[in-house]
Design goal:
Elements (H helix, E strand, L loop, with lengths): L1 E7 L2 E6 L9 E10 L2 H7 L13 E9 L11 E4 L9 H4 L7 H7 L15 E5 L3 E3 L6 H4 L2 H13 L7 E5 L3 H13 L3 E5 L3 H9 L4 E3 L3 H10 L5 E6 L6 H8 E9 L11 H7 L2 E4 L5 H12 L9 E6 L3 H10 L6 E5 L2
Helix pairs in contact: 5-6, 5-11
Length: 343
């Protein structure tokens, strides 16, 4: 079978792999859909190869084989890639920090026993069974393929939750930003402002419930001052994933406000430490999620509390993956979330 990997900047190559057989603790999943993530686009735009196991890490599919030691998953189950429950054995768990479990972190970055020779841009994949969760039967395949990134946003908002009635600002209206603004509404935000340079994405943000959508820069700063009567936003979620957005997040926040980092910037950021100090900014960062949060997020989507269908703008066959990456990395295609169908 052929799997697609990022081998160099703006280069996707197909490699031949044997059809996988599961190890004792693995399952083989026939991939139904795999999402193209912002991390994948960063890898596509960065010199050098992207780590194989990360390239295509948002997938859903049907279990076709199970290892002899696997009892919790069976052939025919529809599953979604996720992280395992906290192990209870690592130093973090034994210190009572179950939400910072090292085994969960290892699964989040697909390292160690969770490493694979390729990701979900392939017809099938063999993975440690703990990386799979049975998909809620109420989810469509396209929704199931978006649960992994959706849960990242859920984790961020749950970790840095707005208070009832808070003014929340979300930087970036890509898939992560558009999902984050919905979670902020679920959490009780009173006013949600989307800051996004692309007018089409601003329109999507408004359709998904944002109270305001404004282009970045002076217009955004003026709007925030007007809406908050000069105070600034209570919580700013940074989802753009570009270095200058780190300081602008602080600029939008009120004194004593919170900045939550979700987007991954590929380069170092220049900031104004004196402004952070003057404003007494609280900063949090979110990487991944917990097993419990995955199950919770999946239920919210199945209950129609979160709209993922509005974010999914296209599905392409595996052979056209190169064009899909080029479209998304251009920033001018109008696409939001593209799913790859390897069937």
């Amino acid at each position: 079978m052929k799997a697609a990997l990022i081998t160099e900047k703006e280069t996707i190559s197909f490699f031949e792999f044997d059809d996988p057989d599961p190890d004792l603790d693995q399952v083989v999943v026939e991939i139904t859909l795999c999402g193209i993530c912002g991390t994948d686009i960063h890898g596509f735009n960065t010199p050098g190869p992207m780590r194989a196991s990360i390239c295509g890490h948002e997938w859903t599919g049907i279990v076709s084989k199970t290892g002899d030691e696997v009892g919790r998953i069976k052939e025919g189950d529809r599953v979604v890639v996720a992280v395992p429950p906290s192990c209870g054995l690592c130093v973090s768990c034994q210190a009572g920090q179950m939400d910072k479990c090292n085994t969960v972190l290892e699964a989040t970055v697909a390292a160690g026993r969770f490493d694979t020779p390729h990701g979900g841009f392939a017809p099938r994949i063999a993975v440690n069974h703990w990386r799979t969760v049975i998909a809620d039967s109420r989810l469509s395949d396209s929704q199931a393929a978006q649960i992994e990134p959706t849960t990242i946003c859920f984790h961020a908002v749950r970790s840095t939750s707005p208070k009832l009635g808070d003014v929340v600002l979300v930087q970036g209206a890509g898939p992560i930003g558009l999902t984050t603004l919905q979670w902020a509404q679920v959490a009780g935000a009173g006013t949600v402002i989307s800051v996004e340079p692309d007018p089409l994405r601003r329109e999507v943000a408004l359709n998904l419930g944002a109270d305001y959508a404004v282009e970045a820069g002076e217009k955004a700063l003026e709007l925030v001052q007007e809406v908050t009567k000069g105070l600034g936003a209570d919580v700013v979620y940074e989802c753009a994933g570009v270095a200058p957005a780190l300081q602008s997040a602080v600029d939008f926040a009120r004194r004593g406000g919170t900045v939550s980092l979700i987007g991954l910037a590929a380069s170092d950021a220049l900031t104004k430490p004196a402004e952070w100090l003057r404003k007494e900014i609280n900063v949090s960062a979110s990487l991944g999620y917990t097993h419990e949060e995955f199950e919770m997020a999946m239920s919210y989507v199945a209950d129609s509390e979160i709209n993922l269908d509005a974010i999914h703008t296209g599905t392409v066959p595996l052979k056209d993956i190169d064009k899909a990456f080029s479209d998304l990395s251009s920033g001018t295609s109008g696409e939001l979330k593209i799913l790859v169908d390897p069937r």
